[in-house]
Amino acid sequence: MIVAERKPIDEIIEKIKDYNKILLLGCNECVTVCEAGGKKEVGVLASALRMYFLNKGKEILIDEITLERQCDHEYLEEIRDRIDQYDAVLSLACGVGVQFMADKYLSTPVYPGVNTCFLGATEKRGLWTERCQACGQCILASTGGICPISRCAKRVLNGPCGGSTNGKCELSKELDCAWQLIIDRLKAMDRLDDYEKLADIKDWSSDRAGGPRKVVREDVQE
Amino acid sequence: MSEKTSSKLERILASGNLAVTSECGPPRGTDPEAIIEKANLIKDYVDAINITDNQTSVTRMCSLAACIRLKLMGLEPVLQMVTRDRNRIALQSDILGAASFDINNMLCLSGDHQSFGDCAAGQNVHDLDSMQLLQLVRKMRDEGKFLGGDEIKRPPKMFVGAAANPFADPFEIRVPRLAKKVAAGAEFIQTQCIYNLDKFEKWMEGVRERGLHEKVHILAGVTPFKSAGMARYMKNRVPGMDVPDDVVKRMADTPKEKQAEEGINICVESIQRLKEVEGVHGFHVMAIEWEEKVPGIIERTGLYPRPEV
Ligand code: SF4
Ligand code: SF4
Questions:
Q1: To 5 degrees, how large is the angle CA B212–CA B215–CA B218?
Q2: Is the interface score ipTM higher than 0.90?
Q3: DSSP 8-state code for residue A194
Q4: CA torsion B180→B235→B50→B108, rounded to 10°?
Q5: Alpha-carbon distance B222 to B236, whole Å?
Q6: CA distance B94 to chain A (A)
Q7: Residue from the list A155, A196, A198 with its beta carbon closest to the beta carbon of B126
Q8: Count of domains in chain A?
Q9: Between chains, do A198 and B179 touch, taking CB under 8 Å as contact?
Q10: Over 60: is that where the pLDDT of A143 sits?
């Protein structure tokens, strides 16, 4: 899923302080799972903002809506008949949702309430870690199912680098060395011989480097 | 291992002599004197001088420019190049530029992470990794082709090296990892600083078992300690560095004013012992901001005078 983190409240206030009517818009998907922008977080943030503006003596309307998804026309359409009641939207969806909102409602200012961080997994409640950088040509088959692009600080394809110490990355003792994980896994699968195969020089054109990407499936288009 | 370039380092290694290299870090400014002075201190005692490439990710004068300085002095530089800061266009272009000045040696590295340096907020590139950089240089040299397949007019003739850290983890892949670098095209290896000689010798055993010592010239890396503090720092703070407790203790038990001398003694003793290790073809003496000590170390270990080849 996409993992996001709520922006600091001061940053949010700075952006919205001059408006009088705000729609605080949550999303029921990834940001709900990572507890950054679901219905619950919308409620918490709305209360905090109301409290802040009340103390400042400013009257402000903050409405709360959480959509099934903000990255989908169908759900975003649900607010079409109400959108003109607001001066601005504060979206707690990931960057994709914020942009979809901006595309669709051309004249309404929209502000991101979260920082979109990475594609990751929930290791346990309150701990999310990166697993993929959507490079567009998955090489997990040759790296024991562990991604060196997202999990190695230097994305080395023939690792580990010389900084790997006691299974940890040179960046920090808190961070596993991805290549240690890959080697452990190759060993567990009795495929350590694979380690000596040189990884091909990667074609990054399907990665961010190639410009904005697109997936087209004509067979499912209507 | 027959000669393929005009590299003096390659010639010395091919002649069967123990090679000696050292390294200089370029200045954090534009004054070429800094590099000239350092080079003058060591030039008669080493066969080639590595110029580091923004080491520890701290911005400095570029390695290529400093290598050209050495060339202008008639010396033999080893151009260090990290994959952290350049994509494949810049790497190939710098290789051509270096070769145009007849810089004949290159060391392919991935580089420390930028968070250790003065631009922690910067991007890193890592378009290729160090092994792929080796492959790239070999392709340019041996096939006379760019990565994209086009012909190179007057291909670069570089003698190509890589680093190896026998002490990084996991230990079991340390020999396979060297095999991989050799397969990628490494012709010489400069190792991480060796303080744990037992572990290094164990690594070399594995290297010999696979016959890698006959495919690549291994230069053992050594760095003298200036003080007990430095020994402790290297042990505890530098990733991938293995400094045994007894070495730290030997430094710490030495009175402060004698510690620098003791650091040199340890370095000299290490070289003496490593000279006996089959497959060690030379030494890479890294005296960090202490270049003036290199001549003494080389003399005391019987590696002076340097052979004329
Ligand atoms: S190899 Fe690419 S697609 Fe596969 S997990 Fe890593 S970043 Fe994602
Ligand atoms: S220590 Fe491991 S994870 Fe960290 S940069 Fe090196 S190879 Fe990558």
A1: 75
A2: yes
A3: G
A4: 30
A5: 18
A6: 19
A7: A155
A8: 2
A9: no
A10: yes
Query: B199 pLDDT band (50/70/90 cuts)?
Result: very high
CATH of the domain at A102: 3.40.50.2300
Q: Are residues A110 and A179 in the same domain?
A: no
Choosing from A133, A182, A202 the residue with most ligand 1 atoms within 8 A of its CB, the one to mutate for a pocket test is A133
Q: Which helix (H) or strand (E) holds A127?
A: strand A127-132
Q: What is the mean pLDDT of chain B?
A: 96
Final residue of a structural domain among A89, A118, A147: A118
B 136-155 residues with CB below 8 A of A? 136, 147
Domains of chain B, start order: 8-224+266-300 (3.20.20.220)
Summarize pLDDT for A85-134 with one digit per residue, the tens.
999 999 999 999 999 999 999 999 999 999 999 999 999 999 999 999 99
- Pure H helices in A63-209: 73-76, 95-104, 148-151, 178-188
- Token look-up 């605080």 returns A24
CA distances from A39 to A28, A93, A142, B79 (A): 7, 11, 40, 57
Identify whether residues A60 and A35 lie together within a single domain: yes
Average pLDDT over residues A179-200: 96
Q: Is the CB of residue A2 below 6 angstroms from any atom belonging to ligand 1?
A: no
Instruction: Please give the average per-residue pLDDT across B17-45, as a whole number.
Output: 97
| Residue A83 shares a structural domain with residue A179 | no
Which contiguous run of DSSP H or E holds residue A31? helix A30-33
Please give, rounded to a whole number of angstroms, the shortest distance from the CA of A131 to a CA of chain B: 18
Distance A213 CA to ligand 1 centre (A): 15
Give yes or no: residues A50 and A99 share one domain.
Answer: yes
What is the b/e burial string over A21-58, where b = at least 16 CB atoms within 10 angstroms of the residue's CB?
ebbbbbbbbbbbebbbbbbebbeebbeebeebbeeeee
Q: Is residue B13 over pLDDT 60?
A: yes
Other CB atoms within 10 Å distance of the CB of residue B272 = 12
* Model confidence band, residue B2 (pLDDT cutoffs 50, 70, 90): low
Interstrand relation of A168-169 and A127-132 (parallel, antiparallel or unpaired)? unpaired
